[in-house]
Amino acid sequence: MIRVIGKWLGRVLFALLLAALVIGIWKREEIQRLMAVNSLFEPDKIVRNFSNMDKAFLHVDLPRGDDPVSPLPKGETLPLPAGMEDWMRDRLVTSLVIVKDGDLVFEDYYLGTEPDDLRMSWSLAKSFISVLTGILVGDGAITSLEDPVTKYVPQLKGGAYDQATVRNVLNMATGVTFDEDYLDYDSDINRMGRILALGGLMDDFAAGLTETFTAPGTDWQYVSIDTHVLGMVLRGATGRKVSDLMAEKIIAPLRLEKSPYYLTDGVGVAFALGGLNLTTRDYARFGQMMLQGGTWQGQRIVSEDWVVASTTASAPTELDEIGYGYQWWIPRSARPREYMGRGIYGQYLYINEPQGTVIALTAADPDFRDRKIQDEHLSYFRRIAGHP
Q1: H-helix or E-strand containing 382?
Q2: What is the largest CA-CA distance in the chain?
Q3: Which of 19, 48, 117, 183 sits a CA distance of 20 to 30 A from 173?
Q4: CA triplet 337, 343, 344: central angle to 5 degrees?
Q5: Residue 199: Cβ-neighbour burial (10 angstroms; 0-12, 13-18, 19+)
Q6: 250 contacts 278 by C-beta, under 8 angstroms
Q7: Tens-place pLDDT, residues 4-15
Q8: 117-to-20, 66, 283 alpha-carbon distances in Å
Q9: What was the pLDDT predicted at 171?
Q10: How many Å apart are CA 58 and CA 95, to the nearest integer?
């Protein structure tokens, strides 16, 4: 009897092991992506991960077009402010590119990164989506910022976004309840990240949100899923993928030095709120286009009216130190036409139009949310620009 039971248990154990092996092979890529998400911010891996996101996530390449590259002209090297090199070491800065009056005046790479690395944008991507929205508004594909998002995305009817307008999602003033805590494993932002890693559907995640904390347009809260909904609006207005629109309307006209890529979900939908990967020089090139009022080498990419409107503090934020426009940040203490895009772990694109300065900085800084450190970034940027 004992021998019979032992044989039966052995067969069951073998069957379970075989089933686990089959599932492991079948779901290998999904398991690898989930493991990548869980180790994405580990101190010994984070710098390498941020330069190789295509190794761990689904993605789509964005062709830069057939036009020859036109590198940023080089100017005389600009010395960094005293103390900045030590500060950059403490902040785990991985690259720094400075453009002054249209000339490349500083460029360096740290912690083993290289000039050709395609660095993860994180929320810098939101500012690209803002420009793409402005282009589609100019083309007439989006008829009004006061249109409800459900006009373009019927899937959102009956959910948290049912009463929100296009302007509301641009301003992140939708009133949608969403937990943005990157340090909480069970937060909405981290649940969304796992959906992305496992090849799930981001649209379904957005449509599944049902709770709001206030009426749209009455209060501001940084809610990254708003940018995904904005991407849904762009797709609904055109019938095209955000990645294709981005490649045609922004990437190709800017004649980037290297073709970038977008992280995507399981059906090829771009991770619009943070999935762009560009070289640091090309982030600076995008910033220079903004500084020039929406033009690049004589070609208009987005209207000057949109550049100004999107980078003017218009969201109903109560923050004292910084305001928010259409997916751009505007320092409260700014002189006119000073603004920036920024992403978690210290990704920055700072633009100071009066001083003719664009600064692109990437990093892997775990203390990126510290208010004092954010103020230090702005202080160094202003000193570089010669901000009065």
Answers
A1: helix 371-385
A2: 90
A3: 183
A4: 145
A5: middle
A6: no
A7: 555 565 555 555
A8: 37, 21, 12
A9: 98
A10: 25
